[in-house]
Amino acid sequence: MKDLKKIISEKKLFRSGMKNVVQYLLSKNIKLGELSGVEIFGGTGETDIFLAEKLKIFEIWEIDRNCFVELKKKFSKSKIDICNSIEKLEKEYNDTKFDVIVMDNPMNVYGPNKESTKYCEHFDILENIYKLINKEAIIIFLVNKKPFFYNKLHKKNLIWKNRRKEFYGDIDVENIGSYYLIKFYEEYFNKNKLEIIFSKNIPRHHPHLDYFIFKVRKNEVEVINSIDWISLNPLLERYKK
Ligand SMILES: C[S@@+](CC[C@H](N)C(=O)[O-])C[C@H]1O[C@@H](n2cnc3c(N)ncnc32)[C@H](O)[C@@H]1O
User: Rounded to the nearest whole angstrom, what is the distance from the C-alpha of residue 161 to the centroid of ligand 1?
Assistant: First the structure.
């Protein structure tokens, strides 16, 4: 476990993950310099900066007011909004739309003030992400394939595990394969009227966290408003514990 902590605290490793995401997008001939982006879980922007510096515009949302000074220092040209991003997108949203959307959310259950288990990973915000999209967008977020559930956080981890099961289905949520996850999110976005143009996963630190990248296009055609669990069924069987 000590080694694992050391690996996680190696910020360099995290940064190289985002650098690889940028390289991948450039290799797909995405003209980053013409695009506007937003990070909706800004923190102090340690990893976001590598993407932000390639984009035309980069906005940052972050709940913690203490991050403001550091963000303003690093992203002097950016609009910084101190807000609860999840709540902001739960309401009617008629503000700026973006071409690149990054979600570097906390990697467990979390929440404001006394509601420390209100939210889980990106699960509570993903269904509203379409509100930030005009016609097409690149969505980048972290997916936890193999979470490490520290024993001392037993109660919180139980809630976290259950939230993962509610979200991903009745599979072994402690070890999910990339293939299942890509198919799962493709289904998820389709259900939200977002057609997939391309998808890709890029490791941030193997074997736990990957960046998942989906280029999507808004599709106004009526689709069944639920995950197609029938077509996912053969995969579900394979990933059950
Ligand atoms: C993993 S950190 C972000 C790291 C950052 N993107 C970077 O590059 O270093 C997650 C951030 O999400 C923020 N956060 C948690 N809940 C939030 C919410 N509801 N709305 C906005 N930000 C939130 C936390 O305060 C924390 O700074």
Answer: 20
Going by CA atoms, what residue is nearest to atom 18 of ligand 1? Answer: 84
Q: How many domains does the chain have?
A: 1
Q: Is the pLDDT of residue 225 over 60?
A: no
The pair of structure tokens assigned to 125 is 């915000």
Q: Which residues contact 58 (CB under 8 A, 6 or more apart)?
A: 36, 37, 38, 39, 48, 51, 52, 75, 77, 78
- Residues 11 and 84: their CA atoms lie apart, in Å, by 25
Degrees to nearest 5, angle at CA 237 with 235 and 241: 115
What residues line ligand 1, using a CB cutoff of 6 Å?
39, 41-48, 61-64, 67, 84-86, 104-106, 110
Decide if pLDDT at 161 tops 80: yes
Neighbours of 216 (CB within 10 A): 26
Those residues whose C-beta lies under 8 Å from the C-beta of residue 152, and which sit 6 or more positions away, are: none
Is this prediction's pTM over 0.85?
yes
For tokens 């960046």, the residue is 211
Quick one: DSSP state of residue 180?
Answer: H
Bridge-based pairing state of the strands 80-82 and 57-62: parallel
Q: Determine the residue of 63, 74, 141 to mutate for testing ligand 1's pocket, defined as the one with the most ligand atoms within 8 A of the Cβ atom.
A: 63
Cα(19) to ligand 1 centroid in Å equals 19
Look up the domain containing 16 and give its range.
Answer: 2-239
Question: The CATH number of the domain where 65 resides is what?
Answer: 3.40.50.150
pLDDT for the residue 3: 55
| 113-118 CB contacts, 8 Å cutoff, 24+ apart | 116/156, 117/156, 117/159
